[in-house]
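Key idea: predict the complex, not the pieces.
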Amino acid sequence: MKIEVLGTGCAKCKTLYENTKKALEESGKSAELVKVEDIPSIMKYGVMSTPALVINGQVRFSGKVASVAEIKGML
Amino acid sequence: MLKNFADYIVFNLLTLKPGSRLGEALDFFIYDTIKIFLLLAVIIFVVAIVRSQFPPEKTRKILSHKREYIGNVMAALLGVVTPFCSCSAVPLFIGFVESGVPLGVTFSFLVSSPMVNEVALVLLWGLFGWKIALIYIGTGLVVAIISGIVIGRLRMEKHVQDYVWEMQVGNGEIVEKTFREKLDFAREYTLGLLKKIWPYVIIGIGVGAFIHGYVPQDFLARWAGRDNPFAVPVAVALGVPLYSNAAGVIPIVHALMEKGMAIGTVLAFMMAVTALSLPEAIILSNVLKKTLLATFFGVVALAIVFVGYLFNAIL
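Result:
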């Protein structure tokens, strides 16, 4: 599984990254977690409001910080 | 009822004298704080639910290939209901122009979205009354529409950073939220926003209360009254660095108006605070070359100054 957190480096993006990391730890699943900060890569997904979460190349949500529990449900 | 509650605390429990400076200032502070926070919580929640119906992806689809005028009007209106944070101004801008939203229409959106925001509306409504709040929305939309049309007419496409036009933009399928998710979104949005702005609101109301109680009546009439032609441009220039503090600025401005600041000057100042921001300019310089960035600021500032003079003349 590959998880990408899209965001240009704002505070919300960092929170989403931390939440995702925690969700992974708590669920015990293994995945490659990366932070995507460059604009061209973010735009490739067509995301216009950051932060956004991409799992296996699919945008799950954008423009919000999901809670740890919410992210766990998506893994 | 809230007024009675504030009166009770200040004049009965704290036994301050009605009419004393400290008493009046404290009474003003308690009343305004409770009123504003109640309004903020309710209105932000409602606005958040409305906003969850208009993700930027949907707005982009509606605005794509729209013509001048109708496109500018729709962009300004959609700017009010589409959630916007200056931190995602860059992906939003690229997403818009790449999918065929004309440059001028994009700017109408970029002006109205931060200017007509829920926090400014609540504070205006709560402190100045619904008439001023409506005037602010109306003139804000007009400023956004006209600025967008002017920028569109100037044909400044070549002043957008070149890489923007070469970028590959994905489709961005809209993940439709369930009603439950929209409620969750609204709740988190409201709490998040309140958490961010509450210190500014309290400081703003505190300073406003101090001015209310201690600054003599008509103190500002000479400098910021309608007879001083420089008051409006100076207010606009002062508003630029105060961005994102609409929450703190509006209560202070409210108190200043009581002391003689003219209404047009007040409106112009608040529009400059919300629409023209330095951090946003820095973020936008990633996608706009200097000429276009300066034009954007110049056109919007001129429009706001014009609004200021207009309302000083007619009200």
